[in-house]
Specification:
- This protein is mainly beta and about 700 residues long.
- The protein has three helices and 59 strands.
- The chain has a five-stranded antiparallel sheet with strand order 1-12-11-10-9, with no helix packed on it. Strands 2-3-59-58-57 form a five-stranded antiparallel sheet. It has a four-stranded antiparallel sheet with strand order 5-6-7-8, with no helix packed on it.
- A hairpin with a 4-residue loop joins β47 and β48.
- The longest helix has 12 residues.
- The N and C termini lie far apart (about 55 Å).
Length: about 700
């Protein structure tokens, strides 16, 4: 075990980050040879945000109601907050992690949680009385991610894993782990886990199985779920016993519908609770009711009458407030001191760090900001809008983006999607695609920015039936329509090329344009869409192709004109762009910058930018970017986490940075790049 260095996060830390965001202090990060080396200027964090994706409520020994929260960022943070005041009672960074996985509270008050990336499967404990935070282990059971911890009556912690769909337990009395093994060869995740009448129930995905395991013997049985409930279900994402019922959340069915199993009869209820978001159901209140957020409204399931009823929540200010946030990942029934006593309230913590409360007796509400310090979010999408400014999307965020002003290089925070993937311009408007479900928003930058209204939602291709698409990485305007290249859903191979009319919302999906491959990069010219593919499909899928392809698609004829293997070792062909004299350029996973004839796909020139074995064959390659710089006669490109300048005349390669993910050229000619968290201004050196 490793005890972490702890302490409150000072306000000065946040102030320093904000100062860094505005500072323009130039420093050569890595330089090409020549009289004037390239300069890479760090403009500070691309996006600062509070991003609570895991939360659990509890009561301290003195009766203080608290919420424990993990805020994703670089690094992730763990905070204990007083629910009634929003004050931070304890806070610490979690070095080596950027993402939380679960938080659960044992009967003795001990908090267990998991965090990861780049750390693998980190398991932690926190003692609220002593404020001792301990890293128990990492890479638990040889796994990468731990999911949905739950504690049995005898104090043992159980959780699921990825990528081998295991169930594992941890005994805090002995410090021993027990590996119950992979639950199925058909799925990579045990994503949900709950304790049901002393058994450990585990739900898998993206092939759904529901198992009940005897924690002593390890013997198990499969719990059968009626076919009527399993329609368009690939995952069990939540399991919670409330009274004599088990509430089971299903995905993607209906946006996380919840099915109810009556333990006394073994029968599943005919009705479902629709569209239950990111939170488990609350504990029961004094009337035996457990609460969920269904379609954004607080809804009660009565465990005594097996009935679902509404509350007065819809008539308060809370729905409108929460609609502006990505989600609420933790809700609970609590008795709060002051005006709420002795009546109970439902309390929640939103992704933005707002603690909200709804009093079950009076209908009164409150909203207060929790003192959770922001962290740099992971930069994910990068593109240029019609105003010439660069726009940046965040990875699994609380709904954050940013804009880099082309004139001043100032970074402005914006509201955005949970995860902004591809960003481009079409028909004079800004296009932002997002995950999950392959979503498209389009915005008029002459109007005020109000995410959800402007940019407005235009399309969700959707997980599950009928199209099974999840991430849009390739995007290009074809003039009258927008072309979208996608990676499929979890467990699926076969991306799609979608043509979208953003004015009307009409679209057509062409799946398996290149059989079994994802489409990750697109360009367009004269009625032809050119695309690069990746052999990898959705997460937890097995590739069916050995090498990626470059292809040309005739938009009017709706057919492939040609398909080319530019490198037998390429796991992806990304970073498509136009070079001089109309050549089509791309970058491959195995470190080749290739020029091709757009009429035939024939390779006319290759430059090796990195050793073939250094690339990631199974990556999607969405961050590969290529820009032709006519002034220097060179390509500016990112691939496999490096920033290159490739001089076309002599094929020399200069590495400008060994830690850079993406690059674009904005409307003023600035090269704007991002690494994991920060944004940079790149100035090319003299060519000599």
């Amino acid at each position: 075990m490793r005890q972490l260095s702890l302490g409150r996060r000072a306000v000065a830390l946040v102030a320093a980050a904000v100062t860094a965001l505005a500072a323009l202090v130039a420093a050569p990060v890595a330089a090409a040879t020549g009289p004037e080396p390239a300069r890479v200027t760090d403009l500070g964090p691309a996006i600062m945000s509070v991003n609570v994706r895991n939360a659990a409520f509890a009561e301290l020994s003195d009766g203080t109601p608290v919420v424990y929260a993990i805020s994703n960022g670089n690094p992730a943070t763990f905070t204990m907050v007083d629910v009634t005041t929003g004050e931070s009672l304890f806070a610490a960074e979690l070095p080596g992690t950027t993402l939380g996985s679960f938080i659960t509270v044992a009967g003795d008050g001990t908090v267990y949680f998991s965090a990861r990336h780049p750390m693998l499967a980190g398991l932690f404990s926190f003692e609220p009385r002593t404020h001792e935070l301990v890293q128990i282990a990492e890479n638990v059971a040889g796994e990468r991610v731990l999911y949905d911890g739950a504690v049995t009556e005898d104090g043992k912690l159980f959780f699921g894993t990825y990528p081998h769909a295991k169930v594992v337990s941890y005994d805090p009395a002995t410090g021993a782990f027990r590996d119950y093994g992979s639950q199925t060869d058909e799925a990579a995740y045990v994503f949900s886990l709950g304790i049901v009448d002393g058994e450990v129930w585990a739900g898998t995905g993206p092939v759904p199985h529901l198992y009940a395991i005897d924690p002593a013997s390890g013997e198990r049985r499969e719990v059968e779920v009626p076919a009527r409930l399993m329609s368009n279900t690939q995952w069990f994402i939540g399991i919670a016993q409330r009274g004599d019922d088990v509430l089971v959340r299903l995905s993607p069915r209906g946006g996380y519908d919840t099915a109810v199993l009556h333990l006394a009869t073994g029968e599943w209820d005919e009705d479902i609770i629709p569209a239950v978001g990111g939170s488990d159901p609350t504990a029961t209140d004094v009337r035996g009711r457990s609460f969920v957020l269904s379609d954004g409204m607080l809804t009660a399931y009565n465990t005594r009458t097996d009935s679902v009823t509404t509350t007065g929540f819809a008539d308060t200010d809370l729905p409108a407030h929460l609609a502006q946030q990505v989600n609420t990942y933790g809700i609970e029934v609590m008795s709060l001191p002051g005006r709420d006593m002795p009546a109970q309230s439902v309390v929640g913590l939103s992704t933005d760090g707002d603690i909200w409360a709804y009093n079950l007796a009076t209908g009164s509400t409150s909203i207060r900001r929790a003192a959770i310090a922001p962290s740099p979010a992971e930069a994910h999408g990068l593109g240029v809008g019609p105003d010439g400014n660069a726009y940046i999307g965040a990875y699994l965020s609380s709904g954050s983006m940013s804009r880099v002003d082309a004139a001043t290089l100032g970074v402005e925070p914006l509201r955005g999607p949970k995860q902004g993937d591809a960003i481009t311009t079409h028909d004079g408007e800004l296009v932002v695609t997002s995950y999950p479900g392959a979503v498209v928003h389009v915005g008029d930058l002459d109007q005020p920015w109000e995410w959800g209204t402007n940019p407005r939602h235009v399309l969700t291709i959707g997980r599950g039936e009928p199209h099974f698409q999840d991430r849009i990485f390739g995007v290009v305007s074809t003039g009258d329509r927008l072309a979208l290249g996608t990676v499929p859903d979890y467990g699926e191979v076969g991306g799609a090329l979608t043509l979208l009319d953003t004015a009307t919302g009409a679209y057509e999906v062409h799946r398996d344009v290149v059989p079994g491959q994802s489409i990750v990069s697109l360009v367009h010219r004269d009625g032809i869409v050119y695309g690069g593919t990746a052999v990898s499909g959705g997460l937890s899928s097995t590739p069916t192709a050995s090498s990626a392809r470059l292809f040309a698609w005739d938009v009017a004829a709706e057919k492939v004109v040609w398909e080319s293997e530019v490198s037998p070792g390429a796991g992806y062909v990304g970073g498509l762009a136009w070079g001089p004299d109309g050549v089509l350029v791309a970058h491959t996973s195995d470190g080749l910058l290739v020029e091709t004839d757009p009429a035939t796909g024939e390779v006319s020139r290759t430059v090796r930018t990195a050793p073939a074995e250094s690339g990631a064959h199974t990556s999607w390659g969405y961050s590969a970017r290529t820009v032709w710089d006519a002034a220097s006669g060179s390509y500016v490109a990112t691939n496999n986490g490096r920033l290159y300048q490739v001089h076309r005349a002599d094929s020399t390669v200069a590495v400008l940075s060994t830690d850079m993910e993406q690059v674009v050229r904005d409307g003023a000619g600035n090269y704007i790049a991002v690494d994991d968290t920060n944004v940079f201004h790149v100035e090319l050196g003299a060519t000599g």
